[in-house]
Design brief:
Layout (H helix, E strand, L loop, with lengths): L1 H28 L3 H6 L5 H10 L6 H12 L14 H36 L4 H15 L2 H15 L15 H27 L2 H8 L4 H26 L1 H11 L5 H10 L3 H29 L1 H9 L1
Length: about 300
């Protein structure tokens, strides 16, 4: 188990380093932030002074080594807009993002798994067909389309809920529903598929033939074995919580990381964009690492395979 954990931890660290490197290089090759922040009409002396102040005149490899060296000490640079530490600006937005993404995750799991299990246990019934039809519609509809439909219905037509802002808890309802709906649909489909596969296994038929109560067969044999592929989807959803909130936060003017990312990209605020991408990458890597650990706990064969390699 120790070797399994160490190999996954090393992979996670290398992934975060790769994301940081990729973001650094791409952002600096995409254009000169001095021209956007200072404007093209600014005097050449002012643009030159700006580049020197932020180290943009140095070779890219020298900028990269400086960035990585400071990052290991927790310094991810300062915002080119207001001079504040970039990581502070990002962490200030984390609570707002978690305020809608964590309830959305609970909605995905709380609705998706029971719906998928019920559909599998009533295969080809009317309830199964309706559940799958709703799930297909849920995960094929873009989040911004669903968000606009919810605003049109509950804000414009009915006037029940606010359309944008974050002045009270009621402002979070529509973003949570938007984020949770598609995830619940995906969860329902994968849970149904996993349950159907498990229910077709010989050991399930053997347990039923021995006279084991069907409810016990489901709870003690089918659900634990169907949990392994389901954990993958939950891990993916946890990992994509922050990244998936970008569009929704923009539509509902929610003051989270996603909205900050949009404004930082528009303003070419390199340090803030890099800090956000680092936080998102770390979040996703930690989620995948947790899933790997869960795999090793649920299925000892996974640990054996990792040890063999």
């Amino acid at each position: 188990m120790l070797l399994f954990t160490a190999s996954r931890a090393l992979r996670a660290a290398l992934t975060i380093l790769f994301v940081m490197t990729f973001a650094f290089v791409v952002l600096r090759l995409s254009g000169d932030p001095a021209l956007l922040i200072m404007s093209v009409d600014a005097p050449p002396e002012a643009i030159k002074a700006f580049r020197e102040a932020w180290g943009l005149e140095r070779p890219i490899w020298e900028q990269y080594l400086s960035y990585i060296g400071h990052a290991f000490t927790g310094d991810f640079g300062k915002s080119m807009r207001d001079g504040r530490p970039a990581i502070d600006l990002v962490m200030e937005r984390v609570p707002a993002t978690l305020a809608i993404t964590l309830p959305a995750l609970a909605l995905k799991v709380g609705l998706g798994i029971p719906a998928g299990v019920y559909a599998a246990l009533h295969r080809n019934s009317f309830a199964d067909r309706m559940t799958m039809a709703v799930s297909v519609a849920g995960f094929t509809m873009p989040s911004f389309v669903l968000a606009l439909l919810l605003v049109l219905l509950f804000s414009v037509n009915l006037g029940w809920l606010p359309a944008s802002g974050a002045d009270s808890p009621t402002y979070a309802i529509l973003p949570i529903i938007t984020l949770g709906a598609s995830g619940a649909a995906i969860m329902a489909r994968f849970t149904r598929s996993a349950m159907l596969e498990v229910l077709g296994q010989p050991y399930i038929r053997a347990a039923s033939a021995k006279g084991v109560e069907w409810r016990r067969v489901i709870s003690h044999h089918a659900l634990p074995n169907a949990a392994i592929p389901t954990v993958t989807i939950i891990g993916f959803m946890i990992g994509s919580l922050v990244a998936g909130a970008v569009v929704v936060e923009s539509v509902f003017a929610w003051p989270g990381i996603g909205r900050l990312l949009v404004s930082a990209v528009a303003n070419r605020d390199l340090a803030v964009v890099q800090a956000i991408l680092m936080v998102i990458a770390t979040w996703m890597v930690l989620a995948n690492f947790t899933v790997d650990m869960a795999y090793g706990w649920l299925d000892p064969r996974v640990r054996g395979t990792a040890a063999a390699h």
